[in-house]
Amino acid sequence: MVGRARTRLPERRDVRGTTGGRGALGIGGGGGRFPGAALGLVLLAGCMAAPLPETAPAPAGPPDAAAEAAAGAVPPATAPRSDYSLALSQYYQRLQNGLLAQGMLRGDGGSADTPFTDAMLARDFVRIALFDEYADSGSALVPDMRLARLRRWEVPVRMEVRFGPSIDPAQAERDRASVAAYAGRLAGATRHDIAMAGSAEAANFHVLFLNEDERLAIAPQLRELVPGIADHSVRAVQNLPRSTLCVVVAFSAPGSDAYTGAIAVIRGEHPDLLRLSCIHEELAQGLGLANDHPLARPSIFNDDQEFALLTGHDELLLRILYDARLHPGMNAAEAAPVVRAIATELMAPGV
Fold first, then answer.
1. Which terminus of the chain is more solvent-facing, meaning fewer CB atoms within 10 Å of its CB: N or C?
2. Helix (H, G, I), strand (E, B), or coil: what is residue 66?
């Protein structure tokens, strides 16, 4: 992440999440190397799988060994997976199969059945980029739709991918290739400087693929990446219910709405399409599209699971977000007329 000052500064988080779909939220608390934070949750309903405890039992074995594994001290594919992690893999495979059987998780980007106008695009942008869906009560997230300020990156984004020791090396290579390809697509959509990092030290957007036991032991790695991170921020990553597929945390300096770093955590138990869906959702959310809107279509920023992958509509949202006429900190009243003008330009015939 960018902004590697090690001073412990107040942390601000904006949280995303919705049960029964993908969503977005907003909250606060903590401090660290990447001052300020925005935490995004992606939740999917699990009504199609056999009953499974919402949270896993504590990982077996000494905590120190688990922490070392989560931090990458053990070579890939040398750590065994728990029975709960194996059960989760079956659960998410059934979930993906069930959604596909319903015609959900589309990857076509939308077609003649999903038309939208410039007015709809502008409306969707305001609801997705300039509202938060949840607030932090101090101990939990509570529904509390409220206006928010525009948030995005002003510095180059440099992504790196890390894997827990139980992730299969061949799967890790596929995931790394997926993130690299998607980083290029995001760069094209935003026209912002987004690329893979040349080294871990140069990275400011970390994408972690972890199985259940590795995620439960992630606290030391989070504290190394973000010194002074609030305990409840760590718990938000560790204590994911089964319905939460992935999470992203983005950081900004105190008093600023410009992101300087991010961490995305994706469950290693996911099958191919849910895995790729998490990559598309979390990395785009980590760029500043923090909410969901039920009328946005075709879009991944919607709770209904119709689309799994970034759509043409969503690329336009990213283009608007990084337009030079907008800037971090703008509120909805300031941004809305500018957004409408940009949307009209983008949707003009021949553009």
1. C
2. helix
Question: In Å, how far from its chain's centre is CA 14?
Answer: 11
Q: Say if residues 13 and 259 touch (Cβ distance below 8 Å).
A: no
Q: Read off the tokens for 65.
A: 């060994």
Is position 5 within any domain? Answer: no
Over the chain, what is the mean pLDDT? 80
Count of C-beta atoms within a 10 Å radius of residue 100: 13
Give per-residue pLDDT as tens, 50-101.
Answer: 455 555 554 444 344 444 444 444 444 457 899 999 999 999 999 999 999 9
The answer to whether residue 114 is domain-embedded is yes
Of 79-83, 227-231, 263-267, where does the model show the most confidence? 263-267
Of 75, 263, 284, whose CA–CA distance to 167 is shortest? 75
CB-count exposure of residue 290 (10 Å: 0-12, 13-18, 19+): buried
Q: How confident is the model at residue 236, as a pLDDT?
A: 81
Of residues 273, 278, 288, 281, the one with CA closest to residue 323? 288
- Number of folded domains that form the chain: 1
Mean pLDDT of 95-124: 95
Cα 296 from chain centre: 18
Query: What pLDDT is recorded for position 253?
Result: 87
How many C-alpha atoms does 37 have within 13 Å on its Cβ side?
37
Tell me phi and psi for residue 147, to 5 degrees: -65, 150
Place 16 in a pLDDT band, splitting at 50, 70 and 90: very low
Using CA atoms of 95, 96, 102, 108 in order, give the dihedral in degrees to the nearest 10: 150
Domain of 19 in residue numbering reads as 12-346
**Do 42 and 22 form a contact (C-beta atoms < 8 A)?**
yes
pTM of the model: 0.81
- Residue 289 falls within a domain, yes or no? yes
Helix (H) or strand (E) holding 208: strand 205-210
In a domain, 139, yes or no: yes
CA distance 136 to 132: 11
| Three-state SS at 238 | helix
Classify residue 327 by burial, with Cβ atoms within 10 Å: 0-12, 13-18, 19+: middle
Spatial contact of 259 and 150, defined as CB atoms under 8 Å apart: no
Instruction: Select from 184, 161, 182 the least CA-distant residue to 277.
Output: 182
